[in-house]
Design a protein that fits this description.
This protein has 328 residues and is mainly α. The protein has 13 helices and no strands.
Length: 328
């Protein structure tokens, strides 16, 4: 059962309150703005929080410079504020600090209301931004660990892939003309999408340590899912002789049973070469139908080979640090 108050909600409420109190203690004007900035600074990941905070600080400096220039030349009125926006927004886009456009413009309105660009008010707005964004970053230094959930995702994904391959092996043995795996394929696709989002969120919760492993793992499994979908299409078109299908079915079962995170697929790829060799020395097809089905069976094996190659490539492309994670 989900708690009524989530962690992000709690951090937002506490952070906004603390930011306002600090701004008031420092005697800053418009102290509530520090709390609003904190609310906008609480993000889902540490890295996002820092990036947005830096963008907003840069945007604030730019906004105060533009506003100070425009207000000095035009005065403190609605036309001046509109002219400020016409100049500031394109510059913010140009310097890639668009996340700070709204917050910076709110701070600029304080200058408009006070009819002043004195050092006191410039400092006031900068401190409001520093306090609000700083509290947001500080609270975002704590993020709950989600590696455990990602590990569960991995086990679920592998189990579904294992089930699909076992069903394919069974369909080959029974000379099935159709394999209905729509639900499990859909469930697997949904699992992969959610797990990929979690993997990216986990990646962005690390600032110094590089945590790409789970992202790369999910990308590898997603590619394997596309291969499995293609392999499934053969079951709507072919029937084959028992000797060949039994050989391929047995190997497909071996792949299914060996499908897990730490299997590099090296041994399976070597064994697959023997399967191809056995197929080569068998007698040639005697009918057109047999020829077509043998060709599709060969392509099924080639796709299975590609499935394994994807896993081997994944392992070989890992950095030394990620390989330690992979092999631990």
């Amino acid at each position: 059962m989900k708690s009524f108050i989530g962690l992000r909600t709690l951090k937002t409420a506490v952070g906004a309150t603390v930011a306002i109190i600090i701004a008031q203690v420092l005697g800053l004007g418009y102290a509530v703005s520090a709390g609003i900035i904190t609310i906008l600074s609480i993000q889902n990941t540490k890295k996002t929080s820092i990036i947005i905070a830096l963008q907003r600080f840069g945007s604030t400096v730019l906004a105060l410079f533009v506003a100070g220039t425009v207000f000095t030349l035009v005065g403190y009125n609605s036309i001046a504020f509109g002219l400020y926006l016409i100049i500031f927004i394109p510059l913010a886009i140009r310097f890639k600090v668009t996340d700070g456009i709204v917050v910076s413009s709110v701070l600029v309105t304080h200058l408009l209301v006070e009819k002043s660009i004195s050092p006191y008010w410039i400092k006031n707005e900068l401190f409001l931004m520093i306090i609000g964004a700083g509290i947001g970053i500080l609270l975002n230094t704590y993020m709950p660990k989600i590696e455990g959930k990602i590990k569960e995702d991995q086990r679920d994904i592998e189990e579904k892939m294992r089930t699909i391959l076992m069903h394919m092996a069974k369909a080959l043995r029974e000379q099935s003309v159709y394999i209905d795996e729509e639900k499990i394929f859909q469930d697997l696709e949904n699992n992969l999408r959610e797990a990929s989002e979690r993997a990216y969120r986990n990646l962005n919760n690390y600032i110094i340590y590089e945590a790409k492993y789970y992202v790369q793992y999910m990308e590898m499994r997603t590619l394997q899912l596309q291969i499995l979908k293609y392999m499934r299409s053969y079951f709507t078109r072919f029937y084959m002789t028992f000797d060949q299908t039994d050989l391929v079915a047995a190997f497909t079962e071996r792949v299914a049973l060996a499908l897990h995170e730490y299997n590099s697929a090296e041994g399976l790829l070597e064994d697959l070469k023997e399967v191809f060799q056995v197929c080569k020395i068998q007698s040639l097809p005697k009918t057109r139908e047999e020829f077509e089905n043998r060709a599709m069976l060969f392509q099924f094996l080639k796709d299975l080979e590609y499935l394994l190659e994807v896993k081997r490539t994944f392992k070989n492309n890992l950095t030394r640090e990620l390989k330690e994670n992979y092999e631990s």
